[in-house]
Each structure stands twice: as structure tokens, then as C-alpha cells.
């Protein structure tokens, strides 16, 4: 296969979900940038494979330069084949291509090349925070993905090092394609527009913000306990707003929320699911963003917060220092004392907040979907030679 006739087949399964996870957002934005990138390229042809009843969903994204291909099997049959390990080589059906698998799980190939994305190894390092059946599936499937792929894309240096060490594969075969930030969406919204979005979701007053799934790995327990330790006058001035879907093992988290509410603390949650178009306004309304996750492959919410001009505190573990640089305050988020102290210091010091905002804008400029799409196309070209 030469550079003059590069053909790429994208597994589009992750794009058919009703509500996107971080993986869905990453895949969609990367493909949108790639779609624009090949606008004037006659030497690159990209197809998206999708299950035959989900074609209309893919069309809503309005890709201009991609062809949509229908899978031979319905989604439930495809998933059943994966679970049972009966995965026929895709290139028998779709031909010789570079195949791009953006969601951990690849399919075998006979005479083609594969580029797959493994975002992080949370299912190996924190199995207690993953539903047991999903943990086993991912652990088994990613081993296959590694063996079937010519390149393993990941999203941070931390993840690259962990994947290389854990699976004993050369780092040269693990290119980093960072998440980008669309600064036409994520910017500091005017107060009048923020007020409309707050009213839409029943959000009131000034708030400290968290965005992410409500689950143990995100360390909401320590965030709630750190908020509880704040001076009473700060808790009176700032509620804690939690934005995210309920996740695995969230029972203890909601028990703490209920206890704090009964004690008079203001723990807010939106009245409805926050759609993507409204997230930047929710960020913009925050006085402080706190993201105390125990482990991340990258950690996009802190970068989104900084793009919206919000001072940010996050954990000093995994990839999070890489994502935020020196623009955010990083702490040992397993320490309630450290987390609470950092929150109080930032909330009490307006000058510090202004400096953090300025540094945050500089950090955000490092992450561009266009630049990352160019890097991904280079990976496809290298593999397809």
C-alpha cells in the first residue's frame, strides 16, 4: 500500500451511543478534524463502519469526506462474537485497509494493518472500581488488541509508559495523540448566557464544580469530605456542584451527599442531563473546578475548565500533571486535608485565581484537534506504507 492510495476503515461503534463518554467525544472530535484535514487530499480515502440500523446516527455528524459502510452483523451479534472470542478477520469482508479501532477492542486481520487506541489501564490497576464482567472483558480483549495491532495509540506519556511496561511492547509503537480542545466551544461565556443555562438546570448561586462520572475512581468521597472541612463561611458562599452520570459503586457517595445536605450544606446536582452544548456555560459559571481523580489516561475536564477561565485543582497522580502543566494546583487527592487546604487557599485569594486563569489559557493552547489529527494521519501513513 503506497501513500498515493491510503485507505482507512474506522470502527464507528463508539459513535452510536445516545450520550457520549470521554471516549466518544475524543473519537468524534478527532474524526471531525481528520475530515477537514483530508478535504483537499485525493490520496486518502476514509470509511466508517457502522451497524446497519445505526447509519442514520452517523449521518447526523455530517462528515463531508468519509464514506459510510454497513457492517454485516447487527450490534448484538457483533458483541456476542467478541464476548465468545469468535471474531472473524474484518478484512475478509471490507478489504485491504489500515483499520482504526478507537475503543480498546480490535478485530483480527489477515492481510491488513491495524491502529488501535488504548486510553489507559484503569481496568488493570483499579479493577475494584470496574464492574467485574467489564473488567474481565477489557483485560482479555485488550491483550488481543495489542497482539493484533501494528500501532497502539494512547493519550498521554503516562499511559504510553504504562502500556509499554505492562504489555512489554516497544515505546516506538505507541504514538501519543492527545485530546484537543475546541476553543470555539470552550471559552469564558458571558455572565448573561451562563445565567440562562444555570436556570435551565436549576443551578443557583456561586459554586465549586466537579464534572465526571459519579463513581469511586473519581474520588468524589474525598471531594465531599474536603468540602465539609472548609470554613463554614466558605461553604455558605459556595455550594458544591456535581455534574455527571451515576456510575459503578456510587452508593457510598450518595450516602455522604445526603448526610451533608441534612447538615445544611449545599450539594447541587443539575435537574437534568447536561447536554454537550451547555457544558462550557456550566464551567464558566464556576469559581473553582476540582477534579480529584485517583487515575486518568489524560483528564480532559480540567483542561476544559481552564479553557473556560476557571482556576483548577486536580490530583498529582497518573497523567493529570501532564494535562494541566503548572497552570493548576495539583495535590495528593487521597489526602482530604491537602485537598481541602488547596480549595480554601484558592477560594480566599483572588489574585491567585487570576494568575491560575492566565496560566490556564496558555496550557490549553497546547491541545489542538487539528494538530492531533495531523499526527494521526501520519501514523496511518506510516502503517500503510
Give your account of this protein's structure.
The chain is α/β, with parallel strands linked by helices and 385 residues long. The chain has two domains: 3-180 and 368-384, Glycogen Phosphorylase B (Rossmann fold); 191-364, 3-Layer(aba) Sandwich (Rossmann fold), CATH 3.40.50.2000. It has 17 helices and twelve strands. The protein has a six-stranded parallel β-sheet, sandwiched between helices. Strands 9-8-7-10-11-12 form a six-stranded parallel β-sheet, sandwiched between helices. It starts with 5 loop residues before the first strand and ends with a helix.
- Determine the structural class based on helices, strands and strand pairing: alpha/beta
CATH superfamily of the largest domain: Glycogen Phosphorylase B
Q: What overall form do the CA principal axes indicate?
A: globular
In the predicted model, the low-confidence regions spanning at least 5 consecutive residues are: none
Classify the beta-strand content into a percent band.
Answer: 5-15%
> How many domains?
2
Quaternary organization: single chain
Termini Cα gap: 5 Å
CATH class of the largest domain: Alpha Beta
The CATH topology label of the largest domain is Rossmann fold
Strand runs, count: 12
Enumerate how many helices there are, as a single number: 17
Roughly how much helix do the residues carry, as a percent range? 40-55%
